[in-house]
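Posting this for the archive.
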Amino acid sequence: MRFFLVVGLCLIASASLADPVYDTQEFSAYENDGTAAMQAKDYARAQEAFASAVLYNPQQAGGFYNLAAAAARHGDNAKALAALERFADFGFYVDLGSAPDFANLRGNAQFQAIRRKIEAGATPVCTCTRVYEGAADSFIAEGIANDLRTGRLFVASVTRRKIVAIQNGKMHDFAIVPDGMSPLGIRINAAHDLLWVAASTLPQSSGGDGDMGAAALLAFDITSGALRERYNAPVYAAKRSFSDMTFAQDGTAYVSDAIEGSIFRLKPGDDALEVVGSRARFSSPQGMVVSADGRRLLVADYTAGLQVLDIASGELANVAVPPGVTTLGMDGLVQMPNGSFAATQNGIRPNRVVNFRLSRDWMRLESFRAVARATPDVSDVSLLTPDGNDVLVVGVSQWNSFGDDPAPTRPLKPWRITRVTLP
């Protein structure tokens, strides 16, 4: 779900600190100072501000791009090219050739080499198979769950406020979400024959109240689609947005609240959700994975990157990421049978599906690769689910056609489910 998209190019970076400092507030403060200085054409001050900004969020490449722009405007070509080199390491596309900030560098051989490297980030990558294509009408496909016992594939529709089931290439309605809420993340609890749903009222919820606010964790009978259980979000916050959910091996359900920045859980036998750790510890939590021993929660925070929550103590730590890699803008997150992880990144352009491995304690990123990007079948990704050693991805969700309104603001494309083969 994309309520907290990172603005502009402020998406990825890597600072030059031996022990990186993660402070998104400091980063934003320096970025704001630099932006104001650029608008005032005080390029020396802008360069200094952006140089400070990149020290405080090592995964924000937009800071390096802005630093390069300020340095180029200031006439410091060496620093501009060095910053662009850092930006190019992340593999994201921007049209340097038409960027006015770099007009004085266009004849520079190093600049042209960087430009070619950045353009390579937009080359198609995908061992993909189209599994299902819906109609080109308002749907917004978000959550996806795979019922391995029956061969049914469940997909959550935000605008229709319902869940559909797909089997043998045919789709039918499975369940309607109550009270104007939309289904987002969905997961199957096969042991209890239930499909669990993180549901929220969104601006795009047709027939809802046109705003974000209500949220609940719902459970539907996997056979009949009847609503069996409902656990409303605690009422101490005026607005909530349950975005995704997961299960621990003991059956404990976890659901992320993208507005307040909290994680809630429902233990087996409990009758209400409880907050995990301190409130508002996250910026915008999305997909989650629980460790096998139930002690840690790996969280894809949209604006802060991968984080690990110690469930008992509530302590939160950033996953260490090497230079040239970002975990920002992640939405869906799952663990694969081989112990690796797969995730969707729709906070960057082009959208992509990634496969990565962490250290045994989950505190360090050990490998990372884009397995799908820049193809029509993964051009507007939302969530994903494992399917054996592959993943099924909502490759075209229709989110790109919508603003904060139930009606689309841009032409709709058919929504698509795509199988992505992992290496």
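The CA atoms of residues 309 and 315 lie 6 Å apart. The chain has a mean pLDDT of 91.
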